[in-house]
Amino acid sequence: MIKTNHTLADILIIDDDKSVVMALHKALNKIGRIRFASDAKQAFVMIKEKHPDLILLDVELPDIGGLEVCSILKTVQETESIPVLFITSNTEVGFEEKVFDVGAADYIVKPLNPRVVAARVQTHIDYQLAIKLLEKLAHTDSMTGLANRRTFDERLIVELKRARREQEPLTVALIDIDEFKKFNDHFGHIEGDDCIKDIALALGNSMKRSTDLAARYGGEEFAFILPNTDVEGANTILSVLLQSIKQLNLTHAPEAKYDVVTISIGYSAVIPGQKYANDSDDWAVVKAADHALYESKQNGRNQVSYEQLGSL
Ligand SMILES: Nc1nc2c(ncn2[C@@H]2O[C@H](COP(=O)(O)OP(=O)(O)OP(=O)(O)O)[C@@H](O)[C@H]2O)c(=O)[nH]1
After folding, report:
1. What confidence tier does 274 reach under pLDDT thresholds 50, 70, 90?
2. What ipTM was predicted for this assembly?
3. Over the chain, what is the mean pLDDT?
4. Is 218's C-beta closer than 6 angstroms to any atom of ligand 1?
5. 144 occurs within a structural domain
6. Looking at ligand 1, which atom is closest to the CA of residue 191?
7. What is the pTM of this model?
8. Active-site residues: which are they?
9. In terms of domains, do 59 and 117 share one?
10. Are residues 19 and 49 in the same domain?
11. Is the shortest distance between the CB of 219 and ligand 1 below 6 Å?
12. Which end of the chain is less enclosed by CB atoms within 10 A, N or C?
């Protein structure tokens, strides 16, 4: 069974009937932190402030109907995955279909039975947490905790689109540990794994903006996506990184060129106004960065090289 994180969930109750709100609070206060909204307008403000883990929604609200509130939440990307459970005394034929048609996860019929309410809510919260956990695992490299190749590929497409739309530069860098085969051959694969983890930690810590991405690209190779970062800015960040990896002072194999473990870096950038900024080939910037990495290796390793997009 998947282990879920049992910190208290954030539950939003949207209902203008005080007796229902009190009953729900009593039933659910051990499961989650409860917030209340008495109409749709107030609810949307509260949802925007902080996305709840689950919403309990009355079908009849003073301003907008509950079914409409649910459809709106399901059409917005940021809120579409929040489970919505309707609270209703409506048992007319066809009502069930209406509730599921607008994307609700479930509905609870009044009069409320506290144990049933708690059990249903807990099931949906556990399910939601399990999905989040699976999504995280699917996008994370298990050895280093960095983003994995899948995340890099997905994010690159999104960030390139954004960069072109906003007319902002975007840098992609590829980073490779130097002469790592010699490290493995000398110290063994377990120490090799530890070395990769140490480097990965330093790479992750070098990301300064929440939009920057450090990923394990494969084996002993890593990749960065640095949105809104031009060639000069990237050069500063990557040169500092080169030094900080050296300063980790990880002893290299005696056969290696340097005493301590070093990295080689290649990068390229999409620059607004430049010929290749609108290139439909999303991978052109990665290919250029890869070529630059090859240059760094050829020129003696432990250095940063830049390849202009389109010069291949
Ligand atoms: N311990 C360990 N080694 C790995 C892992 N992934 C890749 N490697 C090793 O990394 C080494 C990469 O070797 P090469 O591609 O020949 O490159 P290199 O020795 O780093 O030489 P240059 O890249 O030219 O500086 C291989 O020995 C792989 O087995 C891993 O997860 N753990």
Report:
1. confident
2. 0.97
3. 93
4. no
5. no
6. 1
7. 0.81
8. 220
9. yes
10. yes
11. yes
12. N
DSSP 145-209: -SB-HHHHHHHHHHHHHHHHHHT--EEEEEEEETTHHHHHHHH-HHHHHHHHHHHHHHHHHT--S
Which tens digit of pLDDT belongs to each residue from 277-310? Answer: 666 688 999 999 999 999 999 999 999 999 998 6
pLDDT tens sequence across 86-119:
998 877 778 889 999 999 999 998 889 999 999 9
State the closest ligand 1 atom to the C-alpha of 218, by its place in the atom list counted from 1. Answer: 6
Q: Is 85 in the pocket of ligand 1 (CB under 6 A)?
A: no
Among 137, 157, 185, give the residue marking a domain's end: 137
Question: How is residue 187 written in tokens?
Answer: 């110290």
Rounded CA gap, 211 and 170, in Å?
A: 11
Q: Is the CB of 181 under 6 A from ligand 1?
A: yes
Summarised one tens digit per residue, pLDDT across range 14-49 is 999 999 999 999 999 999 999 999 999 999 999 999
The Cα 74–Cα 101 span in angstroms is 11
Residue owning tokens 């056969």? 255
Q: Which of 102, 137, 172 is the last residue of a domain?
A: 137
Tokens of 279: 């290139």
What CATH number is attached to the domain comprising 25? 3.40.50.2300
Note whether residue 312 is domain-resident.
no
List the residue whose alpha carbon is closest to atom 27 of ligand 1: 181
pLDDT above 70 as % of the chain: 95
Decide if 268 contacts 251 (C-beta within 8 A). Answer: no
196 lines ligand 1 (CB under 6 A): yes
